[in-house]
Model the fold of this input.
Amino acid sequence: MWAFLNVLNNDSLSPTTSATKGNYPLKSSYKPMVRVFAIAWLAICSAVILQSSVAMASTSALRTVTTDDKTASVGIPSGWTLTKGANGFIAVTGPNGETVSLGALVVAKNANAGSNVSGDVVFALPFSASLKDKFITIIQKGAAKGGLPAPQITIASETQMKLPMCSQFLGGWIAGQKSSKFEGIVCSLQPDYLGLYKNLVFLAQVPSSLAAQERATVEQIAQSYRVTPAMFKKMLSSYTPLPPRPIPGAMPIAPYQDPTNSDCFDYNVIRESPPWEVPMHCGGYQPG
Done:
């Protein structure tokens, strides 16, 4: 079973004016373009099914569309349209109501649910809340902002990814007369010193009646997503710039545990590489 979602396709859940309020030094060793596999379908199907699906999808030619700021691109088939995109985020829609939203940043406040928020902050929820609660809150806030009926959400499964701050969700939702299937990845990054934290979201949706026939197409689109390394680094950085001095008593963490390390994040979350392909500094066996 697979599924996808359409709640990030509104202004409240799109990227903020900039992916971070500060500028951070970038590693010169990053590849010219980071390849991001946004929808981790490997968690749903076996390699044999995957190969068959990709083979089917390959018969459909994709044309590349790029955001105006040149930070992200994706391939889309005929009939699909780029609807919005900036700061690493990109959203495309299909002719039958399909939507794929990749690299959305949803800013939250580490506070009791229902606490007042302002500016770019979309909702308040303790950082210790489950990823499922955060995921559902993001859906609800998106529907409310878009003036849509409150969705009735069914989570079919949750799979924790290699980094504990990330989970994959499969399920469906009904809003009014509309029934959709969804799949998504949510990564909740550590709060900054002001208590604000980013949720990095990759989501897609199709009408329930089209889920089976549209699967290969949506997977092909997700696989084609690209974001520049400079933008990806900013997406993973703290929302608020770090204070000039380290916080007293703060303990260092290994790179593979650090969600702001985009190299290790790409290996362990986006690509879900086996340990023998992951560099040792990212927790794998490969020298380097």
